[in-house]
Structures are given as structure tokens and as C-alpha cells.
Amino acid sequence: MTHHGQHLALAQAYDGVTRVVADLDDADLQRPTRCRGWLVADLLFHVLCDAQRALVALASPVEGPPDVDDVSYWRKFPPGGQDGAAARHAWWARRSAAAFDRPSGIVRLWTDTAPAAVRAAARADPDGCVTTQGHVLRVPDLLATLTTEAVVHHLDLVLDLPDAPLPGVLATRVAVATVDGMLSDDAVRPAAWSDAEYLLKATGRVPLTDHDKLELGEVAGWFPLLG
Q: Taking a C-beta distance cutoff of 8 angstroms, is the pair 9, 170 a contact?
């Protein structure tokens, strides 16, 4: 996908999150999500941190070459976290979100920050490199990682919000391509899986059924592919 396409996908992914949370009241922002121990407000704060990280990265160009791409980047974050790091971050995010006077304060900060990150992405040099999380990535690859995370967390957010919209098609396509990249070239997902089901199962949000395991064969042992 071109840089322009990656930028549009990120814009769609962040707009999708906004459409989920924009009209929620404080009670709905305290509904559960697919992320263990996190309410909607907690998870939104986590995604907000991603948008803030995007702004820093896009304003911090570095010399190449990149040391990871949009797929290999995720191998630093295996399912279940490393040495309790995921649990520590989850606890920090919950406490940080709770520091807001009201959950809706996180929504206001998100709606200011997410569009700024998208604008910064549009202005970034598509042939340039940036640094984030201790790695150097091409700008389009950074945008793909941000899109993938936003799409997966969008699906997490709507667990207890049955009327909420699903992620957009272009953004979902980027997330699916990332998960495809984690599989071997000869591995094929079950044909009956929707994109959302694929992402939820590939990230361990939904367990594989016995039928899934039969269809996947030995590839089932690779699941979840990322956390």
C-alpha cells in the first residue's frame, strides 16, 4: 500500500474509534472491553497514548535503514507480554485514566489528539524513517502499525456496545495484512471467518474452536499471533 493509502487507513482507523466513543456518556465509558481489567475509558486512554506517540515519532525523523517493518515490529510484543510488562502497563493506564475528573475528559483529549496525528502523518516524508519503541521504521510502516493497533482496539471497545460501528474497510484491510504477515506463506485462514473474527482469533481475544483447529492444522499452534 502507498503512503497515501496508509495515511487514509490511519485516518479511517482513528475516525472509527472516535465514532465509537464520541457520544458515550460517563456511564457507557465505564463499560467493559475485551482487554482484561480495562473499561472503555481505560482502553481509550491507551489508544490516546498511541496517538501521542505517533506525534512524537512523526516529528522525530532519523536516518535509515529501518530495523523492522510493519510486520516484524510486532514480534517485540508477543502475546501475553514480556516479564510482566503488559500487566504493569495495564495497571498504569487504569490509574492514569482514573486521574481524569470524568471519563469524558479522555474523549475530549482523544478528539483533539487523533486528528493531529493524522495531519502529521499526511505531512510526513513517505521515504523517510522515524523512531519509536526503540526501533527505526519507514514512515508508511509506522502508520500501518498504528492502524493495526487502532483497529484491534476498536474491536475491543465495542464488546459491550452492540450498536457501535465496526472499523472501516480500508483500516481493517491493513490490520488483516499485518496478521497475514505473521503467518507462513502457505497458511490460509478458514474461509468462513470474517475479517473481524480473524483479527479477534489471531490476537487471542476469541479462542479457536475445535473446528478451527481442524481447519488450521498445525498452524493452530501459532495462535494467538500477536497480543
A: yes
Select from 111, 116, 134 the least CA-distant residue to 58: 116
The pLDDT assigned to 156 comes to: 98
| Nine-digit cell string for 216 | 488450521
pLDDT at 113: 98
CB neighbour burial string for 5-18, b if at least 16 within 10 angstroms, e if fewer? ebbbbbbbbbbbbb
Give the number of other Cβ atoms within 10 Å of residue 167's Cβ. Answer: 30
Give CA–CA dist 115/109, Å, rounded: 11
Length of the chain: 227
| Residue whose C-alpha cell reads 493524522 in the numeric block | 118
For residue 80, the model assigns a pLDDT of 63
Instruction: Summarize the confidence of residues 51-79 as an average pLDDT.
Output: 92
- Per-domain boundaries in the chain: 3-222
Distance (Å, whole) CA 85 – CA 18: 28
Residue 40 pLDDT more than 60? yes
CATH annotation of 3-222: 1.20.120.450
**Strand-pair partners of 39:** 32
